[in-house]
Fold:
Amino acid sequence: MDEMSGNGLRAYGTGAATGRWDPEDRSDWQIFHANRTIWEAVLSLCDGARTSLAIEQYIFGADIIGTQLMDVLTAGARRGVHVRLLVDAYGSADLVRSAQVETFRRAGGELVRYNPASRLLRNPISGMHRLHRKSVIADSCRMMAGGACYTDRMSDWRDTMVRIEGPIVPHALAAFETAWAYAEGLSAQRSRSHAAEAACGAGFWNYLTSDPVRPARQEIYQTLLTRLDNAHRSIDLATPYLFPDFKIWAALTGAVERGVRVRLLMPARSDHTSIDLVSQRFARALARRGVEAYGYLPAMMHAKLAIIDEWSMVSSFNLDILSIGLNVENGLGTTSPAFREELLGQYECDIATSRRF
Structure:
């Protein structure tokens, strides 16, 4: 199981880690490490839905993978599945303009754009917020969440998504309802009622959100800061883009000063050359202060991971100012020892195929 495949991923055969059952909280999960296997799992999850699908996505393309997924969603709507698709108006502009959307709606599917240009004109501050979540919730009991988008140019990217069944899923659905209500422009009262339900835990797991529309609910950011500040042994992070604020910078450098081993994994070269200039300057500056900073070589590293002592998280949250202050994000945090073991095993393989800054 620990052998390496040609693309630097652990050789799990399909690019997915072996799933585990956590009996203490009745959760069944599986981790996927590459977009091709992530997309296969998403298509399978959507195709198997019987009553409902609730999907949040930042980049949903109108190319091959986007067309395949829209075909599955349209077929589900035709057979009576309640399909709701919430996409960012900027990131998914190509999909929104495509003919597939009208076909999807005629079949009974619902699509809502998050913060279109009209909202930006009405409210220049809240209109800048982007829906950066990537999640699929099927039949209110199964879901996938993590960092993967749906567009062909990302087909070979290294990313991470988690498929999970268990008590945490209804909390993810409550958070979806909050974002859906906001995007539809429904009453603030309805949004508040769902927001009160959103960030809850179940067993080993917590569903975490960050929502600049409600600044008090920056749970991913606050949880990450707390874990970094309290780390006593090890911190392992992965992010595609690095532009931390002062608090995260201070938490990372402070952990090194306490004797905590801190490792940071990012792409050796991302899909944005201009961003690399900034990200790599931060990485080298952190390296001079004792952080082990690595650039992943085999492909674009787009996973957003945190493994801090006994706690771990897979999310849509980048270590940059957009995720910190502007984006609507989500993630799965857990103290499951088995989950941490699986996530850390792939992380070690990623480090082995990276160069140090």
